[in-house]
Amino acid sequence: MNFKKLENNLLDMIQEQQVKIGYMSGVTRFYYPLQSLNRLLGTELSESEMLHAMEKFSDYACERLGKIKASSKNERFCITLPPQASDYVHENRKPSEFLVRFINTVARHGCTLDEVMEVFHAYSKHVHMEKTTGTGFDYLVYFEDGIPDDYRYCLSLEGEHMIYHKFTPEDYEDFGF
């Protein structure tokens, strides 16, 4: 099992949260479909097997993140991280300049697609952008070479606000957008 990939995904989400709203030491919960956890871990486990794997993951990451708890219902998992996980990210991980600039840009009232694309292009010459239909999003944007990250950013302009969702490449493909 690739516990490191799951740990990095959780740390990335905590870091994104801290960039958006600031650092707060507290319990954090993230939700994953079973299929996403299987992709992150490189497994094909059932719901009950995944619950057992989450206990092993907690042991693996406990020193850094504290005692992690997981629960599930209908193949949807809630991973509960103790305050130690937020503290660990705050003390040990500096957010990427791209992430900070991206979030600050999309958070601004009246943000345009051109402004968002300027941010992407400031960090790579290998940016993929396409207009999408039937996805619930207007645009898909990502770094073709995975640098500075390999997430898929799905963007929508709603009124004067740019809304985004970010997915792993595997989840994006699996969702069939």
Layout of strands and helices, then pairs:
Elements: H1 3-21, E1 28-33, H2 34-41, H3 47-65, E2 69-73, E3 76-81, H4 83-92, H5 97-107, H6 113-123, E4 127-131, E5 139-143, E6 152-158, E7 161-167, H7 169-175
Antiparallel strand pairs: 1-3, 2-3, 4-5, 5-6, 6-7
Helix pairs in contact: 1-4, 5-6
Organism: Blautia aquisgranensis
InterPro entries: DUF3877
Protein name: DUF3877 family protein
Overall description:
- With 177 residues, this protein is α+β, with helices and mostly antiparallel strands.
- It is 48% helix and 23% strand.
- The chain has seven helices and seven strands; from the N terminus they run H-E-H-H-E-E-H-H-H-E-E-E-E-H.
- It has helices spanning 3-21, 34-41, 47-65, 83-92, 97-107, 113-123, 169-175, and strands at residues 28-33, 69-73, 76-81, 127-131, 139-143, 152-158, 161-167.
- The strands form two sheets. It has a four-stranded antiparallel β-sheet. Strands 1-3-2 form a three-stranded antiparallel β-sheet.
- The mean pLDDT is 95.
- This is DUF3877 family protein.
- It holds the Pfam family DUF3877.
- It comes from Blautia aquisgranensis.
- InterPro entries: DUF3877 (IPR024539).
> Structural class per helix/strand content?
alpha+beta
Assign an overall shape: globular
Radius of gyration: 17 Å
Major sheet characteristics? 4 strands, antiparallel
Please state the average pLDDT score. Answer: 95
Strand order of the largest sheet: 4-5-6-7
> Tally of extended strands?
7
